[in-house]
Amino acid sequence: MFVIASLFGSFEQSMESARLWIHSLLFFIFIIASLYVLDTLVISNRLTTHYQNIQLKKQPQLPLRFRSDGTFKILQVADMHYGNGMVTRCRDVLESEFNYCSDLNTTHFLRKMIHIERPDLIVFTGDNIFGSSATDAAESLFEVFAPAIESGIPWAAVLGNHDQESTMNREELMSFISLMDYSVSQVFPMDPMEQQPMTNIDGFGNYNLEVRGAPGSYLSNSSILNLYFLDSGDRAIVDGVRTYNWIRESQLSWLRGLSKRFQVLL
Ligand SMILES: *[C@@H]1O[C@H](CO)[C@@H](O)[C@H](O)[C@H]1NC(C)=O
Ligand SMILES: *[C@@H]1O[C@H](CO)[C@@H](O)[C@H](O)[C@H]1NC(C)=O
């Protein structure tokens, strides 16, 4: 009787430890399953790159060309002085207009001009963003050039003396601008002999754009208008006097050389 009881006792004990063991196993499986679900539903979605979401720069239709009617229309826009959008008030407006005027009015005006004029090229000639009221240069660049980008029309920009007063220096600004959709801006001009960027030139945003003859014409493969873009810098101190910067000899010598090449080609 005693033997049976003790046998029974140890049987109960081993049942108990088996139950514990099964509980631990189930718990373990539960943890693994939870981690798996967490990983597949939440974490991996955040970590993996979805290739279809990578945006390449949208390229404008090139080369630039005269139209069949012999015209080539450039919309030139300077001094937009864009800050932080809706919260940046207009300057030099009537007191009654002050509360209802912001950077968005500039955007609205630009969009309207592009729509009315349908230019072949849009050229922004500096102070596109206004450093002291733009807290994030990249954000302001996206907003200020948005109407040009939406239009799909090729556009080029150079800098003024205020663009670099926010969070990017002039080189960063020009390389950012050169990578934006439909932009034909460049940081450095191309060396026509070596076919590589001439980085030893003063400034950022020196380049040229060729405009070819009308489609189907005998000049359709020739550059008949060459647009030069030059960086005149921001500010300088000369003999202790604060003044504006200027175009340097290295830039002029590039311009002269290129101009001679075009004359020889004609
Ligand atoms: C700016 O835009 C707003 C909204 O369209 C308009 O009410 C206001 O008159 C504009 N201000 C100026 C000075 O053009
Ligand atoms: C321009 O180049 C294209 C392609 O190379 C050629 O087919 C065409 O005949 C050329 N047109 C002229 C006017 O030279």
From TrEMBL:
<dbReference type="GO" id="GO:0016788">
    <property type="term" value="F:hydrolase activity, acting on ester bonds"/>
</dbReference>
<dbReference type="InterPro" id="IPR029052">
    <property type="entry name" value="Metallo-depent_PP-like"/>
</dbReference>
<dbReference type="InterPro" id="IPR004843">
    <property type="entry name" value="Calcineurin-like_PHP"/>
</dbReference>
<protein>
    <recommendedName>
        <fullName>Calcineurin-like phosphoesterase domain-containing protein</fullName>
    </recommendedName>
</protein>
<dbReference type="GO" id="GO:0005737">
    <property type="term" value="C:cytoplasm"/>
</dbReference>
<feature type="domain" description="Calcineurin-like phosphoesterase">
    <location>
        <begin position="72"/>
        <end position="249"/>
    </location>
</feature>
<keyword id="KW-0472">Membrane</keyword>
<feature type="transmembrane region" description="Helical">
    <location>
        <begin position="20"/>
        <end position="38"/>
    </location>
</feature>
<keyword id="KW-1133">Transmembrane helix</keyword>
<dbReference type="Pfam" id="PF00149">
    <property type="entry name" value="Metallophos"/>
</dbReference>
<keyword id="KW-0812">Transmembrane</keyword>
